[in-house]
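Slide 14.
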Amino acid sequence: MAMTDGRKFEEELADLEMLVTSIDSGELSLEDSIAAFERGVALVRSLNQKLDEVERRVEVLTRGPQGQLRTAPYQGDSTAPPDDDSADDEDSY
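Slide 15: predicted structure.
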């Protein structure tokens, strides 16, 4: 949807919070509630897309056995080190 293109994550999140508050208030008509819900769904999709994009860009910084710094793609919630030679290194982060 065009209404969310190019907007900052924080702006979209604030808009979503306002929509939820207005729906929860019970003061909107049924039609207005449905329209607000549809806008909220579009915002949630946009926010999820932005989060996915950021997650793809995040890298993990690790220190190898010889003290050298390396980057590796973020692997989600995995606690395993990005490569085998840093597995025994206590200084890996």
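Speaker note: The chain is about 50% helix and 10% strand.
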